[in-house]
């Protein structure tokens, strides 16, 4: 028995004063209403109606039960309405996990405009460079750089994140400047290795369709790109990091962009979430906002021309 459907039928019978009236109101058959009420009385273990050939009336138990049913059904209808409104309008807490370097360098500056557009959303942001299990750890959204290993997740491209090989002028003066990938091994360059890379022991470059791989000789392994950037600025070795991390230093000539004709495999910033079905408005609007702010030509690809304050000016209407 569908208990909530039986409760609705019971309320309609009580309101109309007859089984046939309830059947017409609910667009169902009289035997169906009769069966539901009989099943409901059997479930409760008490008679709800006094029946006679001329009239139908509530028993004392039925009268008390009617009051409770009305409240329960009202609560259910309100819950459905609130859930529907939440799905259509951004509200509630959006829990997300974001790589530390991307969050600190680029996410923070665009948050004020999003919060101004959608004041009913609260943000709970966890900074971590590890690959977080969104479902197990209760996150609505994750920002990932590079390849997505978990095929069960939905991924949307936010922006390109090209990798850049660079080193400080002082390091290059001391150890020489690699002009081709083979020079990295021939000249015994120190490579600052990112331990969360898909293949942390190898750097790969492509030129004219030909792939070149370099096995790394590393004195520093770290799971944070900003730490490796600081080490490179300090003259400790070559670093291969996204332009959104090293762009400012290349612009300020603290780092030199090396071998620009040899391009590492394309990478990208992606938003990932568990399912595209019944996607909440808070997730949908935040991902759309990230694409709007960064997109196919992000500011970091100009080597650090991103504005430090505020998001892009937009005439896009809020919802």
Structure commentary:
There is one protein chain. This protein is α/β, with parallel strands linked by helices and 319 residues long. It has three domains: 3-88, Arc Repressor Mutant, subunit A, CATH 1.10.10; 92-161 and 267-302, Periplasmic binding protein-like II (D-Maltodextrin-Binding Protein, domain 2, 3-Layer(aba) Sandwich), CATH 3.40.190.10; 163-257, D-Maltodextrin-Binding Protein, domain 2. It is 40% helix and 22% strand. The protein has ten helices and 14 strands. The chain has helices spanning 3-16, 19-26, 30-44, 60-88, 100-117, 169-175, 181-186, 225-233, 243-251, 281-293; strands at 49-51, 56-58, 92-98, 121-127, 141-145, 154-160, 163-167, 191-194, 202-207, 210-215, 220-222, 238-242, 256-257, 268-273. A five-stranded mixed β-sheet has the order 4-3-5-14-6, covered by helices on one side. Helix 1 (3-16) crosses helix 4 (60-88). The chain is rod-shaped, with a radius of gyration of 31 Å. The model is unreliable at 313-319 (pLDDT under 50). Residues 1-59 form the HTH lysR-type domain. It comes from Undibacterium terreum. InterPro entries: LysR-type_TF_proteobact-type, LysR_HTH_N, LysR_subst-bd, WH-like_DNA-bd_sf, WH_DNA-bd_sf. One of its GO terms (molecular function) is sequence-specific DNA binding. One of its GO terms (biological process) is DNA-templated transcription.
Provide a short characterization of the protein structure.
The chain has ten helices and 14 strands.
Sequence-ordered SSE layout with sheet pairings:
Elements: H1 3-16, H2 19-26, H3 30-44, E1 49-51, E2 56-58, H4 60-88, E3 92-98, H5 100-117, E4 121-127, E5 141-145, E6 154-160, E7 163-167, H6 169-175, H7 181-186, E8 191-194, E9 202-207, E10 210-215, E11 220-222, H8 225-233, E12 238-242, H9 243-251, E13 256-257, E14 268-273, H10 281-293
Parallel strand pairs: 3-4, 3-5, 8-11, 8-12
Antiparallel strand pairs: 1-2, 5-14, 6-14, 7-12, 7-13, 9-10
Helix pairs in contact: 1-2, 1-3, 1-4, 2-3
